[in-house]
Design brief:
The protein has 8 helices and 9 strands. The protein is of the alpha/beta class. The mean pLDDT is 89.
């Protein structure tokens, strides 16, 4: 049974005409009627089923407005780089001993970064890190010699964009407490990243079929894209 709070929200919003995200922000915020700072989320449906191949997107986007979330970042690196990692804000830093802890299933972090030379040791832990989506990846910026930059990106507002087998991508553009400007900057950054992914993949037609926006405990609205992607 829907709660009293939910019953007060607008009905059948999915039946409304699509509207640009900028105009939807006030409605989404108005529907954030819980006591916590709800997220404003986007759900993309992409045209991933192609005749000759299937489009799979996995990349990262740096959100200029931040995410509003604290991310626990761990770094596996050589001893001479450990101070650099700590200075950049890493929560856990270690070398061979830390790798052994990860091997035993100690995964008390949300993002794992490592240097290229340490990746050889981590690559053997696919069964431990893979299912949790924690395996460092050069394409995602989590395997790097520039530990400072990698940690700061992970801490300041870097999120992963990845489609599931049905072609759906879910990503948050920020929190209710964010200014409209912050949310729009993040939204535009996400669209720009998807635009780049389209040019990297050979596909026919538009990459994005549909976009919906909602708040964590709110209702969903169709989003009209400003331009075809």
């Amino acid at each position: 049974m829907p709660s009293k709070r939910f019953k007060k929200l607008p009905e059948k919003t999915k039946d409304l005409s699509a509207e640009i995200f900028e105009k939807l922000i006030p409605e989404l915020k108005k529907n954030c009627t819980t006591k916590f700072d709800e997220s404003l989320d986007l759900s993309f449906q992409i045209n991933n089923k192609q005749k000759k191949s299937e489009v799979n997107i996995r990349t990262v986007v740096n959100l200029p407005g931040g995410t509003g979330k604290k991310v626990k970042v761990a770094v596996v690196c050589e001893d001479n780089k450990s101070q650099e990692a700590k200075d950049a804000g890493a929560d856990i830093v270690g070398s061979d001993e830390f790798v052994e802890k990860i091997k035993s299933g100690e995964l008390n972090f949300e993002k794992l970064i490592c240097t290229p030379s340490m990746m050889v040791k981590l690559s053997k832990l696919g069964k431990v890190l893979g299912p949790k989506g924690l395996m460092p990846n050069p394409k995602l910026g989590s395997v790097s010699d520039n530990i400072k930059e990698a940690v700061m990106n992970a801490k300041s507002g870097q999120v992963e964009i990845r489609n599931d087998k049905d072609g759906n991508i879910g990503v948050s553009v920020g929190k209710k407490s964010f200014s409209d400007e912050q949310l729009m900057k993040n939204y535009n950054a996400i669209l720009e990243t998807l635009e780049k992914e389209k040019s990297n993949n050979t596909l026919k037609g538009d990459l994005i079929k549909n976009v919906f926006a909602t708040s964590t405990m709110g209702v969903s609205y169709k989003v009209k894209l400003g331009k075809s992607i």
